[in-house]
Amino acid sequence: MEHSSIIDHYLAMPYWVIDILPKQVPSNGRGQYFKIEGHFLKEPQFGAICKKFSNVIIKLNCYCDISVCNALGDCSDNPQPEYIEECLSSGKAVYVVLKSEHAMIGFCGDDHYMTLYNPDENLLELVSSLAHSEGLFVWKPVQKEKKHDGFTTDDLKEKGGTCDVDYIVGGYQG
After folding, report:
1. 3-class secondary structure for 33-92?
2. Are 33 and 39 in contact (CB under 8 A)?
């Protein structure tokens, strides 16, 4: 199966969020979610978050083989740590396929969270431990029936690798 087909397959699977926030913010929350989100999406905070995400993936590669794919379809199996850092700080979508685990991690490139698709109990425990070691949290959001509204990797290619649709549910429940 081609990488884009594999990625599209996982986008429809159950998912967990790897986030700077410990749980999903309710849509009727009394805080300033969007102001706070904007703060964390600016430098130097965003660069620090991307570094934490890179570290989780690099550490995960100690335990399982990974294939890192950018939104344009370029993939690299078990790449050098520097390549992982470069991809996650590019501002473009990145997918990390964990073939032997039958799972995937997606990062939109401009969000404060990653999404872990189809983890089994062991992988979820491992990723949670790695995330916690970086000061991140792993939580299960309210699952929407239609997770990505038919959005595919072909749509990403047309948009130059950016995600501006709500196919990965992040910290805000809206």
Report:
1. HHHHHHHHCCCCHHHHHHHHHHHHHHHHCCCCCCEEEECCCCEEECCCHHHHHHHHCCCC
2. no
C-alpha to C-alpha distances, 92 to 7, 50, 68, 73, nearest whole angstrom: 15, 12, 13, 12
This prediction has a pTM of 0.84
Whole-number Å distance between alpha carbons of 114 and 75? 18
Residue 113 in tokens: 């969270």
Per-residue pLDDT of the chain (174 residues; tens, 9 = 90+): 566 788 889 999 999 999 999 999 988 888 899 999 999 999 999 999 999 999 999 999 999 999 999 877 789 999 999 999 999 999 999 999 998 999 999 999 999 999 999 999 999 999 999 999 999 999 999 876 544 444 455 555 555 555 543 333 445 554
